[in-house]
């Protein structure tokens, strides 16, 4: 039997053109919808529901009705773009790129790849074992594991939409810096001694051949993957967004400004460490915590303290630490927490100093 022609197996030029046209039309619809959010939120709050402008309840409802669609639109648009970029990477390719890299250069590369790689707490153990299996130094592995949740696409998108590109860019830079330094520091402590033995037994089974199917994807396939990923991510995080914005709306409308400014204000030297201590035991993600951060800042809390709180929640969440305990002995896990927390505290003070 003769093989099918290539054109019957791969998308045609017309299919590719149609995919680009659909993306362009979607982008136009996104811009139109985004520009209508504010007037629509105010119309619903003050004309339809008939709440008083300037009232506590009115301010809270307007905040909620404006932020929910705004964040969902920003998240959807940016996740689509980032997923298209991520389609040029894969866990296998990431491990292949990092394999054989020495510490230093490897830490920087691992942190940069961590920003581009999807990551959640449930992926911590498989990723860790996979990196060990590929022969990647543990210090480099920790740089990746720190950067991936800390500087994820959701955090950057929501920070950009909430505080502007300057804050998002500084957050990304400091997050990557924390990941690089923490990996270098942990790598100098001979961390192999404090990894559970079964990890190396799994890694001893031999490396697998690395495939790079993403290099063969067409644009229509990348767009299709991005559509599906966007639906999946937004479908998972929208409850966190609604709850987080609801909490933020309550803070925005009802919490006195002086109360928060006294605890997390710039003048209180303890505000940044307090933000970290408050954030570590909590569980949320950027989708739920950024709206709360926005409300805290609007009420007088220092941006550095609030971002330190947010970074502690997303970078040192209790579920992730519990999961990592399966592969790390308590001493190494504690070292990881202390090093990352120290970097976050420094970042909080840096934000307060730079953005005063």
What does this structure look like?
The structure is a single chain. The chain is an all-alpha fold and 356 residues long. The chain has two domains: 15-87 and 220-238; 97-204 and 246-354, no CATH class. It contains 18 helices and no strands. 38% of the residues are buried.
Essential attributes:
2 domains; 356 residues; flat
How would the blueprint of this fold be written?
Layout: H1 6-9, H2 13-35, H3 37-48, H4 56-86, H5 91-98, H6 105-116, H7 124-133, H8 138-150, H9 153-163, H10 165-187, H11 197-203, H12 219-254, H13 257-264, H14 271-279, H15 286-298, H16 303-315, H17 318-324, H18 330-354
What's the short story on this structure?
The chain has 356 residues and is an all-alpha fold. It is built from 18 helices and no strands. The N terminus is likely disordered.
